[in-house]
Amino acid sequence: MKPLRIALTKGRLEKSTVALFEKLGYNCDEIHNKGRRLILNIGDGDFEVVLAKAADVITYVEHGVCDLGVVGKDTILENGTSFYELLDLGFGRCKFALACKKGHNFYHGYDAKTIATKYPNVTRKFFENKNMDVRVIKIEGSVELAPLVGLADGIVDIVETGSTLKANNLEVIEDVTTISARLIANTASLKLRKNEIEDLVRKMEAEVK
Amino acid sequence: MKKNLKVTPEGTRDYLFKECTAVNYVCKKIKKVFESHQFHQVITPALEYYDLFSIKSGEIAQELMYKTFDNTGRIVAVRPDSTLPIARMVSTRMQNEVLPVRLYYNQSVYRNNPSFTGRYNEIMQMGVELIGSKGKRADLEIITTAIQSMQAVSSDFRIEVGHSMLFNALADTLEVKDSIKESIRVFIENKNYSALNDALDKLEQNDTVTAIRKLPSLFGGREVFEKAESIIKVPEALDALDYLKSLYEQLEKLNLGDKIIVDLGLVKRNDYYSGIVFSGYILGYGDAILSGGRYDKIFDAFDCPTGASGFAIDINYIAEKAKYRSKSNIPDVLVYARNEEDIMDAIAYTSKLVESGVKAQFSDLPDEAQAREFAAELGIKKFEIYGDE
Questions:
Q1: Interface size, chain A vs chain B, as Cβ–Cβ contacts under 8 Å
Q2: What's the pLDDT tens digit per position in A53-77?
Q3: Tens-place pLDDT, residues A141-159
Q4: What is the CATH number assigned to the segment(s) B18-321?
Q5: Do A85 and B283 touch (CB under 8 A)?
Q6: Torsion of CA B352, B353, B359, B365, to 10 degrees
């Protein structure tokens, strides 16, 4: 039987996931000494780990070339379509929030608001639920800049400590949703390799609870 | 203006030679299963009025459809699905026929998927519709036909079976807005345990909430029924569970072991499905390859209420995964007509060779040197010149 293939979001989530695997007793030496390799084995060939950018984790899992994936809820909300979301892993906690310049009354008046964000889908949905029709502008880099230079009335972005906001004289007006890392599974894989996947989910669940 | 001369629209492709052979091979195998159950082929137009796909219980998201206008300004859609066109056809052209009827189709559907996802927008589909009957006999025959179709094209497959009334009956007893019920349904469909728990934690805790919480994890073999029976208390939901169990017991007679899965968390669009639902998976492809169930409600929209069930299989992926080696396209003999007055005789001679079982081809090139070069490049073993010098 082929090992289960797991796509991990490179960076912070990767480190926490590897720590979780080590707590479960799987040998992760290959990941610690990965060099430039992108496909690695953990345990005694139990799993094959693929390192990818967050949105790509979803793409690989959706197409079934990876059975499982570890990805932030932020990426799922922005890009997700069809897969199973099996477990809240608890780490990588932060939140989506709406922020604007300190002292600015964001909701005041009837003029259409402009929002700058890296997450246009999340933003659109958030305001749709408030019955607000806003103009969304996608920004690739530091979103905090947009209200400062007068491009947008507010931003929707990931907030961890809030220090970047503070340093730029911005403040959170409202939380959109909380975020953490999730274990996702391909729909066909869960059906075809039910026992192996459920076994891993059970072990992980016991550890993160 | 830049002309799009060298690309096909996203999600579409050409099929060449062996690729066609693979498609035809798969279609032939499935057709054999369909016809053995006395399903007969129909073809519906590729263009339909948009209204057909926006009926109450069968609505298809409008951004998914390719649309245009007819010459009176009415919106026309390139069919995104074959079931609704067939429902339209049956409720009009076949209103005086003896029911039930068994139909099958082998035609593409078109869906405008988001860009750069690698999905096909032109999807070759084969499917059956059993219209005019309800109940266990119809359900078992349609599921069996689906299983046999999967068996015909794959040795490693899974069919999962669920019942849409199970969730609906549980959800009906919850005193919450429909939009919350719908989001709970989506959480179960996506096996999103954490979101489901968050949503259910906000409700008053009772037996039903406990049962709904467990639904997405209730999939597998026979043991699923025992687990479910102990936690489900709503009578209508228990009826659906009993019914599903009786189907499963019958399907066990096929001796397919764990290839048949019960999934109580299989809660596909509940505005559409009104009874059994099922999906099929094959190893190596990440999404359901077969999808079907019972959808009696759609015929209400055509003022012709009756039972309806069926399923569709996506062919593209199966044909792609199936590495069927077709025979070589290269002929054994190339026939060249020496003079212009020999052309008709040479064509007739080539036909005669073909009739006698030789793979012969008439050379359409203008002179002998070019014809010989063509034969050599392609590796045609025999070069024959027809006609006297």
A1: 59
A2: 999 999 999 999 999 999 999 999 9
A3: 999 999 999 999 999 999 9
A4: 3.30.930.10
A5: no
A6: -80
